[in-house]
Inverse folding.
């Protein structure tokens, strides 16, 4: 145990200047939604609200495709992984650059053509009409709703987390947090929710639900275009700032090569005297305790911890312990050179220090600059070779199996648009993902000890970089980049779910003669209800956003890619075959996650599916799905000749070709 001073964080987390910039961006989003709503008054509601009348040009199509793919996982979950595991994330994400070639090149022209032949508006529409199977359409709808609901909850968490970081130094936000804390203290399901997070979740949810409900597809597309521009500008600004403040690429890499993984656990904090007022031990506070060799051990607090008036002790304070001697010396030196203005002169002792080592990489230097990367609970590391191969398929091939991408492919206006967009999106992803790897490797040096709160690393890094150059107003724009990524994904998923319910369940199966007014009201209501439900689900969100993104992305690909490829390109494909492939892919993928629950004690803290032959579940799911479609199709009667003629006869294809 030791006596010392509580060192509070050197870095404030936000400013009114950043908030004003961010609010200006949000107002622009609502302005685009209002403009988009005017189009709904002059065109067919269903086609315009859910598909933008199939009129997207190169920039609108390319940026809405890219912005939807670059979700909250790209700007919160992906940076979290980079910070946690180091340079190996470049290999993990490398194949994402060929997603446009696979997704747009493999399916783009053909799915657009088939959708025009059948007049389809949604992905279940395409599958239902291709085989004249209502059951297939309903099955596709239910699977979309199942996976998208999980993803929406994770995205709402990301949006709220970003806002929490931005507002954490705004006085009005602190006043509102205190008021909400008093109001929710007696509400059972809200008492355990951080009041600040609750405010930000509500603000984010209301904003995205209103503009998506009000504006429809064109509001989503236009905001995606703006958000796509904001994302790439934000990354391009952060890249040179991060490299410069980390001392250059060579210095940053040398520092990372010395690092050993931290220890994560809890400590008991004992104050030397009781405090008259309630005391909050702030997240990111540094605490010291002596080591065996008399060198101070350095801990960083992971989340706010309250001590009531008169209290002197708090148990199980969540902390991250820095283990690299050079890093400990550097941090202590920085704190001594830059005294904290609100430092609390309270002596304390640390006891009951219980911290755990990483399963892979503990005590080893260099693990952050070479594969497979450190890992808290997997003794094989983060990215062994077999898993790296799996993720090549996960991003490059399964990216083509996302219904949200397929909807975009149904909306472009010409083959020329498609060809140019493939090139545009490939460049766009290159300008986003590789710089992010560099930025958040630098974050390990600039923001040490955040290994338990890595989902906050993007907004924290944005605020740090701009504060260090005296341009806090710029933080609003940089934080708008991940916020834009989340919003562009949430609005797309909201429309997908509402279109699935209104179009594919109600209009196609319950009331085919429903008036446009009825469909319009139901579409608005469904979008609002689904968004509100996801917002409620995010009250107790999943711990790791990227794990949910990977699960839903892989699951959708396992269900939809095989059936869609056979649907579009194999005349012999029939309803029993493609339905079997969809169910087989779903079952194979889900079963490996269910097996993980029973095999790994920490599954719900660190989602770890069972990996057959060390491959990610998406690879197994895709393999099973493709085989099931092929085998069951050959075992069952061929489809009616009129269906084959309608979708594969050259005359029909020529008459409905996408115009050059």
């Amino acid at each position: 145990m030791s006596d010392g001073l509580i060192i509070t964080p050197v870095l404030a987390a936000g400013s009114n200047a950043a908030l004003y910039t961010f609010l200006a961006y949000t107002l622009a989003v609502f302005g685009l939604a209002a403009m988009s709503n005017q189009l709904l008054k002059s065109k067919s509601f269903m086609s315009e609200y859910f598909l933008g009348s199939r009129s997207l040009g190169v920039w609108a199509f390319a940026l809405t495709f890219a912005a939807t793919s670059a979700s909250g996982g790209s700007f919160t979950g992906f940076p979290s992984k980079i910070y946690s595991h180091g340079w190996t994330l470049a290999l993990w994400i490398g194949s994402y650059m060929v997603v446009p070639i696979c997704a747009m090149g493999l399916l783009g022209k053909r799915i657009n053509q088939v959708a025009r032949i059948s007049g389809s508006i949604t992905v279940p529409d395409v599958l239902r009409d291709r085989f004249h199977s209502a059951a297939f359409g309903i099955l596709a709808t239910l699977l979309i709703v199942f996976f998208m609901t999980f993803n929406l909850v994770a995205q709402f968490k990301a949006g709220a987390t970003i806002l929490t970081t931005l507002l954490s130094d705004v006085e009005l936000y602190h006043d509102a947090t205190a008021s909400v804390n008093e109001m929710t203290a007696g509400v059972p399901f809200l008492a355990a929710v951080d009041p600040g997070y609750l405010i930000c979740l509500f603000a984010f949810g209301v904003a995205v639900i209103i503009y998506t409900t009000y504006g429809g597809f064109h509001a989503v597309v236009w905001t995606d275009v703006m958000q796509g521009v904001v994302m790439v500008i934000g990354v391009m600004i952060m890249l040179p700032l991060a490299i410069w403040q980390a001392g250059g690429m060579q210095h940053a890499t040398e520092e990372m090569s010395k690092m050993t993984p931290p220890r994560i656990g809890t400590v008991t904090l004992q104050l030397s005297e009781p405090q008259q007022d309630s005391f909050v031990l702030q997240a990111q506070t540094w605490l010291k305790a002596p080591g065996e060799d008399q060198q101070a051990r350095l801990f960083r607090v992971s989340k706010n911890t309250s001590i009531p008036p008169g209290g002197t002790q708090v148990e199980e304070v969540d902390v991250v312990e820095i283990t690299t001697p050079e890093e400990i010396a550097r941090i202590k030196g920085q704190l001594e050179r830059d005294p904290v203005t609100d430092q609390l002169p309270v002596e304390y002792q640390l006891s009951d220090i219980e911290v755990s080592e990483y399963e892979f990489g503990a005590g080893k230097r260099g693990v952050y600059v070479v594969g497979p990367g450190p890992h808290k609970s997997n003794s094989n590391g983060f990215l062994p070779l077999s898993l790296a191969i799996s993720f090549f398929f996960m991003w490059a091939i399964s990216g083509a199996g996302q219904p949200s991408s397929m909807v975009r492919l149904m909306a472009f206006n010409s083959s020329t648009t498609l060809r140019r967009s493939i090139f545009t999106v490939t460049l766009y992803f290159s300008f986003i993902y590789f710089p992010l790897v560099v930025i958040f490797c630098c974050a390990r040096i600039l923001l040490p000890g955040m290994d338990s709160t890595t989902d906050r690393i993007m907004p924290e890094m944005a605020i740090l970089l701009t504060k260090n150059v005296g341009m806090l107003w710029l933080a609003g724009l940089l934080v708008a980049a991940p916020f834009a990524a989340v919003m562009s994904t949430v609005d797309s998923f909201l429309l997908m779910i509402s279109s699935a319910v209104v179009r594919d369940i109600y209009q196609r199966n319950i009331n085919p003669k429903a008036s446009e007014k009825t469909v319009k009201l139901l579409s608005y209501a469904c979008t609002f209800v689904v968004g509100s439900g996801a917002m409620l689900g995010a009250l107790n969100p999943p711990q790791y956003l990227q794990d949910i993104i990977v699960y839903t992305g892989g699951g959708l690909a396992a269900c939809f890619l095989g059936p869609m490829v056979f649907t579009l390109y194999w005349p012999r494909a029939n309803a029993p075959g493609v339905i079997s492939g969809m169910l087989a892919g779903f079952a194979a993928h889900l079963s490996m996650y269910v097996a993980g629950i029973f095999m790994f004690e920490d599954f719900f803290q660190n989602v770890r599916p069972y990996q057959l032959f060390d491959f990610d579940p998406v690879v197994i799911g895709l393999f099973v799905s493709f085989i099931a479609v092929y085998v069951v199709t050959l075992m069952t009667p061929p489809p009616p000749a009129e269906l084959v003629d309608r979708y594969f006869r050259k005359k029909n294809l020529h008459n409905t070709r996408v115009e050059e």
